[in-house]
Amino acid sequence: MKSLSRLGTWLTGPTGVVVCLLALTLIYLLEAFKIAPPINNGALTASFFPVALAVVMLLALGGVILADRREAASGEAGDEAGAGESDEGGDNRGDAKVAAWRGPVAVTLLTAVYIALFAHLGYFIATFLYAFSMTLAFATGRPSPQALAFKALVAGVITLLGYGLFELVFQVRLPTPWI
C-alpha cells in the first residue's frame, strides 16, 4: 500500500508534468515519423526537425526523471538518518521545488501557445512574441524599460536568424500572413 501511495504522490507532483510531457512527446515522435523518413536520398525531409526535437525532448525528460529519482532516493536515505531531528527547512524545500518548476511549465505553455498561433499569425509575429515571452519568462524581477527594449531586440534578432536559417539554408517555406 505504501508503494501505491508513493506512486500517487509521484504522479500528482511535479514529476506528473514530466510524465505527461513524456507521453505527448512520444505521440509527437510517432506522428513525425508518419510524415516521411527524416532523411531521404541524403536530403533532410519535413520530418527531420520534428524527429530531432522529439529525441532531444525525450533525452531531456529522461534526465529529469533520473534526477528526480536520485533526489528521492537521497531524500529517503537522509530521512532515515535524521529521523529524530527536527525539520525546520521543510517548507523552504517545497517552495524551492515549486520555483524550480515554474520555468519548465512556462516554457511548455508558451510553446503550446506558439504552436497554436504560428499558422494564424505567421512566422514573424508568432516567433517574435514567443522569443520575447521566453526572455520574460526567465527574467528575475520586473525588467526596466531598457531591459524590455533589449529583450525585444534579442527577440527580433532570433526571429530574423530563424527565418534565414529555414528559408535560406533549409529552404523551408514559413507561413507569413502577407504572402
Layout: helices, strands, pairs:
Elements: H1 2-12, H2 14-35, E1 39-40, E2 43-44, H3 48-81, H4 90-121, H5 123-137, H6 145-169
Antiparallel strand pairs: 1-2
Helix pairs in contact: 2-3, 4-5, 5-6
What does it look like?
With 179 residues, this protein is mainly alpha-helical. 78% of the residues lie in helices and 2% in strands. It contains 6 helices and 2 strands, in the order ααββαααα. The protein has a two-stranded antiparallel ribbon. Helix 4 runs antiparallel to helix 5 (123-137). The protein is flat and about 60 Å long.
Quick structural summary:
It is built from six helices and two strands, in the order ααββαααα. The chain has helices at residues 2-12, 14-35, 48-81, 90-121, 123-137, 145-169, and strands at residues 39-40, 43-44.
What's the helix-strand series? HHEEHHHH
What is the gyration radius calculated from CA atoms? 21 Å
Overall outline:
flat
Task: Give the end-to-end Cα distance, rounded to a whole number of Å.
Answer: 61 Å
Number of strands: 2
Structural category? mainly alpha
Tell me the helix content.
over 70%
Low-confidence spans: pLDDT under 50, at least 5 residues?
Answer: none
Figure out the total of helices.
6
Multimer state? single chain
**Overall pLDDT:** 76
| Major sheet strand order | 1-2
Largest sheet features: 2 strands, antiparallel
Report strand %.
Answer: under 5%
Task: From the structure above, extract its key features.
single chain, 179 residues, mainly alpha, two-stranded antiparallel sheet, 6 helices, 78% helix, flat
